Amino acid sequence: MTILSATQTTESTDVPALELPPLQLGKHTIETPVILAPMAGITNRAFRRLCREYGGGVYVTEMVTARALVERNAESMRIISHDEDEELRSIQIYGVDPNTVRAAVRMVIDEDRADHIDLNFGCPVPKVTRKGGGAALPWKTDLFTSIIEAATSEAAKGEVPLTIKMRKGIDEDHLTYIESAKIARDHGAAAVTLHGRTSRQYYAGKADWEAIATLREALPDIPVLGNGDIFSAEDAIEMVEQTGVDGIVVGRGCQGRPWLFGDLQAAFEGRPQRFRPGVREVADTVYRHGELLAEYFEDEGKGMRDIRKHIAWYFKGYPVGGDIRAQLAQVPSLARLRELLNELDLDLGYPGSAAEGTRGRAGTPKKTHLPDGWLSSREMSDEHRVMIKAAELDISGG
User: 290 and 337 in contact (C-beta within 8 Å)?
Assistant: First the structure.
């Protein structure tokens, strides 16, 4: 249910609305077919609460490694924690070793820590792909299949739906998404999400929605979700119309804009209302975010260090001077945060298109770092098997 503050400003739009049926993930019916994508350092319990208060959907934790879960790493256990009122507890696990992934999923199921599990096969970061993980992993069909089989078999024991999130492939010459999606489906995955970019693209250029449409057509028997370049409710409507997906996954588009989920719910319910917060509303949201972070980390200083990276996103396009932005980006305490926010011209309204559009850094395409000989075969070599086990240990710690 959407929870609005008394001062929230909404406007009606003349953009055609779209009514999309609820999303079915195993035994769970998701009335608003929207998923918050896992983002490291962003989608913690504090930010998820802000988003949930605007609209419905599935709100996924930050990614945690299978090894860190098995080891019960303290930070990883914090990452997979949920508020008591999170109706559908969703976590994302990353792993490169089937046995470790199996053990992590078993722990989550046995201890009743989630209602939905997502597996990450889309990370393009060099420290991950150079070890054969993330977006590089689906190239090795046998390894990918083993991980999917291990995870789905354990998740099924608790009737917890398991989904996968992936990219198109390593680059345009090494695409894996259709084959990987079919493997996931055949082993019982409840849905697949495709980010319409290759690993090489990072977040540069435009997401390939045609690839998402191709996957939707190739996989008619389970839900397919689309991810990439959704920065507004209108983008979501356009993606659904172009691709036929069953739901959308939002990542960078909601950074500094938790109210986007209110816009998305309105759009999928056929309503024209959109949130257009003025400076006062944004400032109040920033302060509340800071409070929630301090509570989440159980440390006000750590909460303030974390809120700093959100400042530029929240005030994108708003007439906030450089000096006060710089001070907000170094804020040491909640009291100082409140003081600085009160120095803003709180009566200024929504700045319009200046606050819309892309968020975060898109970067530029770059060659994907891979293990030596990784592309020479679709099957794992003995050397690569040894390397993968070491990689699982290397990334332990959440």
Answer: yes
